[in-house]
Amino acid sequence: VAALYSPYRRYHSYMKHYAELPHNDRGAYLQLSRGIQRFDIHPDPKDVPSGNYKLRVRLGAVEGSDPSRHFIQIGHPKKLNGTSPGFTKLLSTQPISGTIENPEIIEVNVEFGESTPRVVGIQERQPKSAKLVREDFDRHKQKNGYGTPPAIWVDWIELEGPLTESAVTKSAMTHVEPEKTINPANEDVIKQIEEQQTRFEQWKKGVDEAAKSPENQAIIAEIRKTDRLIDHPNRFYTFADRFEGTPNPRDFGFSDVKKAAAADPSRSRSLALHKHYVGLPHRDRGTYLKLTHGTGRVIVKPKEMPPGNYVMRVRVGVVEGTPASRRFIQVGHPQREIESRDWGLEGRAISSHQVAGTIENPELIEIPLEVGTNTPKEFAVQEKQTNNGNLKVQWDEHNTLKAENGYGHPPAIWIDWVELEGPLSSSRKQWKQRREVELHANAKVGGTYNGYFKGGYEKGKAFLDTGTPQKGIVDEWEANFRIRQFEEKGPAYLRYLDDPLTQAGSFLTISEVNKEEYIALPPEHPSGWKKTDHIVESLPPGTYKLRCRIGAVEGTPVERHFVDLGAVPDKEHFDRLATFQITGSTDEPEIIELLVQLTKDSPRKFALREKRDVKADLSRDRDARKENGVGLQPALWIDWVEWEGPLDASNESGRKNWLITEADEPDESLRAQKMIKQFALEAFRGVEPEAEYIDRLTGLFVIRREAGDSFDTAIRLPLSIVLASPGFLYLSEPNNADDRRQLTDRELAVRLAYFLWSAPPDRELLELAKQQKLSQPETLRQQVDRMIADERSNQFVAGFVHQWLDMERLDFFQFDTRLYRDFDESTRAAAREEVYQSFAHLFRGGEDGRISQLLKSETVFINGLLANYYGIEGVTGDEFQEVSLPEGSPRGGLLGMAAIHAMGSDGVVSSPVERGAWVLRHLLHDPPPPAPPNVPQISRLQ
Asked: Are residues 662 and 773 in the same domain?
């Protein structure tokens, strides 16, 4: 009987469910209610000397689990039984953005001192009480039969160290639970106000008694002649020091009569507000921000805050029923000038953030912060204040509300906790988020169809039948217009919604319905129809990767299987970044990727749309609608979109960061000196910098370190000076002799590099120059061949061909899209690249690169887009490739390229004169003489 009612019986189905979960063969799930609730890494203490370590965890969130549970805590465990949650010291709380299919690696710095426990554990972030865990378990068990479902899966944990000083960024976390500080302080304020009011009543009694005397009545009458405020009930006691025989306010704890009079209960502006907030629910686990009186901000003030990058996390929700205008928080430095005012920021806010969470389901907002040497070492979170800083508006609003509800501003923002972590390591945290596009697309298309088209049709019919004005329809013309709109365009929307593929993805349509699908990076959203639940509030500048899983719809024309990806700075503009040929299908979609560089002010919103001619869209769709009643069939289908970043540039290029890896001196000043010297040697293109110059720069580094800058920050000043020096900015070839002279090997290396690469020489060139070998004919020939084969010679190809063939003329004209519908911006870009690729092939082709092939060739260098434009079959993909021409093709060589033909036209018709002049100028080097003066234009109509 005891066994039947024991905890083991209660949790048996729960433990069994976890044991049978998938992916247990390569990882394990953290449990929240029972079982293995914490994973520990427990090395032998003898193997872990004091020092700095890196703890890495590879993990992912369970698909479909509650996003509010996608957090782990890292710390030193309370008990070493490997099961019970809890830490003696919490080191870090980390959000989880990876999944089981695409886990992420989280890195945390851990410092072990002499007495620090050598055990580190991870657990799912715990609720504030065990009671909440049990209640949540029981609620889930009633629904699913076992209890709390899994939320976090862990692949592995590792601990690395001790690390050298150059590899460590000491990071700390300051966590603030405001209910432990602000709420008790609020109750103390109430006690102080009530105690002051009691002392005021005692003092007031003495003043009232003294005021009754004839002498004081005469004084009051005399004051009344010049100051009528003495008759104001709230101001009478401010004149008490001018009466005879009144009690001294100091005896009652007030510094003067003005302070005493201010304690008059009838003058209290905030007591009712404080008492109202004390009675609010949820104060046992958070606090409410006040807007005008009392504690209006949560302050985070670490004991130490060295310069560097930090992240502030705020777990926050809005109070139900709060107007949209008050659903914002601000982050900044707290003002300290007015001590009595426990709210407000110093200067402008650092950032403002809209709050979408609720008290029941708070959201976590992450705010990146940068701390310099002179940055105030404290931050505050408060409800967003008026933009113009006019506090009178808030005071007046408070008084108006107080007259209505008895206390003033109702609460709008509830804070669970605030934490500040940093300085962060130079390897920045990366995020990745995927969006299933059908949720937003169906909300938008369905809302538009049911609201505007179908709803407008029904209202229009009702108006014509009854003559009664409907919402948005006030006359017969509008009613007939909405009916026509539904009949003409409604079928296209209905076809979209009825297609089974829209339950798993979205179509890109050529006109209306769903013309674009968005990759919206925080803080942007696809549109107002359905906002994205971003995993981070905002993103730092850096390199990001955009991904899309997409396929072509079976039976649609191949020429429509191209998608444009571009930036969307605003509603009116689309800046194309790349065009992709889609060879996947709806059954087997392909994944396309594009790297984008985000700056502080660059757009965070990108769009995918079918490659098309915007001007011709309406006529094409109109013709198709006349033919089939619904318009053009969608040709492209999107499964999901995704972004990832910021990416580490070194990971993308694979190049070695020589500046860091080669300067590994234990003494940081010597390490900085070596780094500066290496950097200057590279910047000055092999010219050895003078020792005195390096010493002065090293001295600047030392000064910045002594001022409190981190190593990474302090080293920037001397390196910046190197980049601003003439030795870097100018190519210097000293020549004091009057006669011509032979170039030195180093000068030859510099000239070669800037001629072929438009960049400084690499180490191999400089090393050969240093050995005096570069000028030797065989060595020089080998190096030129190596440099031409290097991708950096593309700079020479583009620069030389652009100037030689006057390629800028390709951008002179806007081509008539009615005549040349397929020659859009993406085709123009591909046509330009064909010229560059063809020349590069001859340039690098060795014996096969015959110059005659520039004029006539049996092959072309094209991609799938240009092949489709030329009508050449069997070519797919976005990469340019050499393709043999079919027999009888007019293509091949410069004179068969679309770009050359386009430059010999005016955008509408070809110009034989321009084409002939172009051949004379650029191919035969025999430019025609200038046209005779005063020759009138020949009209095309004659």
From this structure: no
CA–CA distance, 378 with 304 (Å, rounded to integer): 10
Best CA proximity match to 39, nearest among 30, 26, 51, 47: 30
pLDDT in tens, 901-938: 988 887 788 888 888 888 898 888 888 888 788 777 66
Gap between the Cα atoms of 421 and 418, Å rounded: 10
Strands 605-610 and 562-567: antiparallel
Say how far residue 563 (Cα) sits from the centre of its chain: 24
Residue 667 neighbours by CB under 8 Å, 6+ apart: none
Q: Note the pTM of the prediction, 2 decimals.
A: 0.49
My answer on whether 774 and 845 are in the same domain is: no
Q: Which residue range is the domain that position 419 belongs to?
A: 171-429
Contact 409, 397 (CB under 8 A): yes
Asked whether 41 and 120 are in contact (CB, 8 A), the reply is: yes
Sign of CA dihedral 184, 190, 193, 197: negative
pLDDT tens per residue across span 422-446: 887 655 567 889 999 999 999 999 9
d(CA 299, CA 419): 10
Q: Which two tokens stand for residue 853?
A: 């092939």
Indicate if 494 and 383 belong to the same structural domain. Answer: no
Please check whether residues 827 and 801 belong to one and the same domain: yes
Measured in degrees and rounded to the nearest 5, phi and psi for residue 423 equal -70, 145
CA–CA separation, 928 and 932 (whole Å):
12
Other CB atoms within a 10 A radius of the CB of residue 250 amount to: 11
Q: Cα–Cα distance between 604 and 602 in angstroms, integer?
A: 7
Cβ atoms 301, 381 nearer than 8 A: no
Torsion over CA: 376, 381, 387, 392 (sign): negative
- Integer Rg of the chain from CA: 37
Query: Collapsing DSSP states into helix, strand and coil, what is residue 847?
Result: helix
Q: Are strands 351-354 and 506-508 parallel, antiparallel or unpaired?
A: unpaired
Q: How far apart are CA 33 and CA 191, in angstroms?
A: 41
